[in-house]
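Action item from last meeting closed. Structure (467 res):
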């Protein structure tokens, strides 16, 4: 086991949410939580990204109340498994979110407490099951195993929660261990918003400007809109210009190669690499992924085109950026819900959506409301890079999940103000990848073995790579 995360409660952390209350006070030794005689106090760790095989440890001190409860365990996506330590009766009880299991699952007497501080440890390992893996739980009190319970129907990836009720305690330290490292914790992303234009030279200049701006800010993944090299006007002449496309791409590749600290780059373009027999016409609307040296990593094809002259890609687009699993769908593909839920079900935690769908319209508050709902069915991050307005980055949380949005859609003092005129702009957000758990697609998958099998078959048929 390796240490994945340590948290001293006397300090702050992006992974934890500490309530603002005069009953919760940071001190030199930790976090003083005084819940005696009042409602319970919840200390959430929604960004502590645990998996099957991980262990979590909490060290706390009873401040002399001699009563009440300290609850500690795995929590997220309406599922949980926690131990309740009864400080008065010296008992420990295991509670889970399983509706078909009597609660508590088990209750045992605790060994004598240590005078200064006590440590509670929960270990969740993979249990029995075919596609749907159950979880086995072990609970330790000051290093001694007091509870073992097997075959719990709990999703593998969960956050952490601490609850203190009718007790006064000092939370001192938390540790998270696992058999393997987690994915990269932070990824700095950018959506390069452009204006839809027929001028290829101007478009290429804009893309290169975006590359240089991103490099200066340390952005690791930059996304330009759909079909942004030629502009998108659905007219056949722009689809036949293979030589201008090659010249444009050469400039973009050189800019990546020659710019220090270049990001990974996604650019919307025609794809001449796959053609109809006997024809030089492009057949795919593609968003090409380049590495920082300007090399092609992969072509991400529009799954279901809504324009003439194009073929359908009919395959999922999945790849990794510095170890972070990413999926991509193009503009109109948003109408097909499987294109966002299936990749998340099998591991993607960032969804990329390049768009060239026309001028953003409507009230700014309405545009933001639609944006905030983009992750309601996934619990993943969502990045939209658009021409003509409406670029944004959304987080997985239910509330306060708008991480960044282009200027024409930002709220003003006038609640009903319409979206403004869009402009070329870099929309930047550093995402904390450990905050995304994919709760909703994962729970759908785990409904039954038959349903899980059907989802796997669909995912494989659509070219899914993460099985």
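Sequence:
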């Amino acid at each position: 086991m390796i240490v994945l995360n340590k948290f001293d409660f006397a300090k702050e952390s992006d992974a934890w949410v500490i309530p603002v209350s005069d009953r919760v006070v940071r001190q030199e030794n930790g976090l003083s939580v005084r819940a005696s005689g009042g409602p319970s106090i919840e200390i959430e760790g929604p960004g502590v990204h645990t998996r099957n095989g991980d262990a979590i440890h909490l060290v706390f001190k009873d401040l002399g109340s001699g009563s009440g409860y300290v609850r500690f365990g795995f929590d997220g996506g309406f599922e949980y498994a926690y131990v309740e330590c009864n400080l008065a009766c010296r008992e420990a009880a295991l509670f889970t979110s399983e509706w078909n299991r009597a609660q508590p699952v088990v209750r045992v007497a605790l060994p004598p407490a240590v005078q200064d501080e006590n440590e509670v440890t929960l270990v969740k390992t993979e249990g029995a099951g075919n596609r749907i893996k159950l979880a086995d739980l072990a609970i330790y009190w000051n290093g001694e195993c007091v509870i073992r319970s097997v075959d719990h129907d709990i999703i593998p990836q969960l956050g952490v929660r601490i609850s203190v009720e009718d007790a006064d305690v000092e939370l001192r330290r938390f540790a998270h261990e696992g058999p393997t490292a987690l994915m990269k914790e932070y990824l700095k992303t950018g959506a390069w918003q452009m204006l839809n234009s027929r001028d290829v030279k101007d478009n290429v200049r804009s893309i290169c400007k975006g590359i240089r701006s991103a490099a200066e800010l340390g952005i690791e993944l930059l996304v330009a809109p759909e079909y942004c090299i030629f502009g998108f006007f659905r007219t056949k002449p722009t689809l036949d210009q293979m030589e201008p496309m090659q010249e444009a791409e050469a400039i973009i590749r050189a800019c990546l190669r020659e710019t220090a600290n270049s990001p990974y780059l996604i650019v919307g373009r025609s794809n001449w690499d796959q053609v109809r027999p006997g024809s030089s016409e492009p057949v795919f609307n593609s968003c090409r992924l380049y590495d920082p040296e300007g090399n092609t990593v992969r072509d991400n094809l529009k799954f279901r085109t809504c324009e003439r002259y194009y073929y359908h890609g009919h395959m999922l687009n999945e790849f990794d950026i510095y170890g972070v699993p990413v999926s991509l769908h193009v503009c109109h593909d948003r109408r097909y819900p499987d294109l966002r839920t299936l990749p998340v079900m099998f591991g993607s935690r960032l969804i990329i959506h390049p768009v060239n769908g026309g001028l953003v319209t409507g009230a700014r508050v309405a545009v933001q409301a639609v944006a905030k709902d983009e992750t309601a069915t996934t619990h993943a991050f969502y990045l939209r890079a658009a021409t003509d307005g409406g670029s944004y980055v959304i987080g997985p949380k239910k509330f306060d999940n708008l991480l960044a949005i282009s200027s024409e859609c930002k709220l003003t003092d006038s609640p009903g103000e319409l979206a403004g005129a869009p402009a070329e702009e870099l929309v930047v957000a550093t995402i904390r990848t450990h905050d995304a758990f994919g709760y909703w697609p994962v729970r759908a998958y785990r409904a039954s073995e038959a349903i899980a099998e059907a989802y796997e078959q669909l995912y494989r048929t659509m070219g899914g790579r993460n099985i």
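Note appended to the action item: The mean pLDDT is 93.
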